[in-house]
Design brief:
The chain is mostly helical. The chain contains 15 helices and 4 strands. The chain has a single domain, classed as ABC transporter involved in vitamin B12 uptake, BtuC (Orthogonal Bundle). The relative contact order is 0.20.
């Protein structure tokens, strides 16, 4: 039972990543009707916002200490990040918490990238067949990952989590169990909490703000909203930017769990599209529910006891569940009638 509980927790943080990416995909499809195969690349770009900020924060100034020498008799070099030299303890704090601070960089960067993508490319494919949308956005994703590969290299770049949350939480003791029975990394718990907050914020924005209500009305009947004098196109552009921000923040916070590299987006893209299809194309609640469901099932399937019975089940469980659900419910868990059926 302890192992099952730990794998359940693993599934929550993994499902949080799936749900965040799938949420952005569904926002774009629900508002613009575009199947965006470049959305995984936005997750990758967010991760590299964290890499970039850390590189900037760890730029070092070099000084020599004449009172100390190396084994070769030369003055000892002392390397200090500029931010520590300029801001003291706060500079050291910024370096240590570079991943959370990267969100402040990722939000405006991803907003600009999202708006440029939508205005410069995506808007020309609103009324084109979905096959053409997939081809052009998949090509864009390849271009973006090759750009990242050129500037950052092909190898993964580890990003340390803040030292204050580098340990593990004794969840078992907190639940009244024996201590040190169920311990779980703090950062994974933080990522799960972060994903819940972001998902809740997006739903609250769509549900309780006038802007969100107009967007939901436009998703249901775009022509009618346009006829009453509302410029729905600008709002949909903003939603594309919001989807990019959500994917970027998800990528930033995931970097301590999985060192980012240039094909990170492609790794998550296929899984996130499976999540969207299982949840139901165009259904935001379905995307979130399917994300957490498939994340948990994938983690449970990775248990040694399960793999001993069915070898390799952890690699195919998501696709197997997707096949079963779509056989029973062709529109997905919460899919709507008429979406991608024409």
């Amino acid at each position: 039972m302890d192992a099952i509980f730990l794998q359940f927790l693993n599934g929550l943080d993994k499902g949080g990543a799936y749900a965040l990416i799938a949420l952005g995909l569904t926002l774009v499809f629900g508002t613009l009707g575009v199947v965006n195969f470049a959305h995984g690349a936005l997750f990758m770009l967010g991760a590299f916002c964290a890499v970039t900020l850390r590189k900037l924060l760890t730029l070092e100034m070099v000084a020599t200490d004449p009172e100390k020498v190396t084994a070769w008799g030369t003055p000892l070099e002392i390397r200090t990040p500029y931010v520590e030299a300029w801001f003291g303890d706060f500079g050291a704090f910024m370096v240590d918490f570079s991943v959370p601070f990267s969100i402040l960089l990722a939000i405006p960067v991803m907003l600009v990238i999202g708006v440029v993508m939508e205005r410069g490319l995506i808007k020309h494919f609103y009324r084109r067949p979905h096959a053409e949308q997939i081809l052009v956005t998949f090509g864009l994703a390849i271009v973006l990952q090759e750009i990242i590969k050129h500037y950052f290299g092909a190898n993964p770049i580890p990003q340390p989590m803040p030292s204050a949350v580098g340990g593990a939480a004794d969840i078992g003791a907190a639940l009244g169990m024996d201590p040190n029975v169920i311990v779980y990394p703090w950062w994974r718990l933080i990522y799960f909490a972060f994903s819940v907050v972001v998902i809740g914020a997006v739903f609250a924005f769509l549900q309780f703000t006038t802007f969100g209500m107009v967007v939901r009305a436009g998703m249901a009947d775009r022509e009618t909203v346009g006829l009453i004098g509302i410029d729905i196109d600008k709002r949909f552009t903003a939603m594309f930017g919001l989807a990019a921000i959500v994917a970027g923040m998800a990528g930033v916070m995931y970097t301590p769990l999985l060192p980012p590299d240039y094909h990170l987006g492609m790794d998550f893209l296929v899984l996130s599209f499976v999540v969207v299809v299982v949840g139901g194309m165009g259904s935001l609640p379905g995307a979130v529910a399917a994300g957490f469901l498939l994340g948990i099932l994938q983690s449970l399937a990775s248990m040694t006891e399960i793999k001993a019975i069915i070898p390799g089940i952890d690699q195919i469980i998501i696709y197997l569940v997707a096949v079963i659900i779509l056989l029973v419910r062709p529109r997905g868990l919460l899919g709507r009638r008429g979406v991608m059926e024409s």
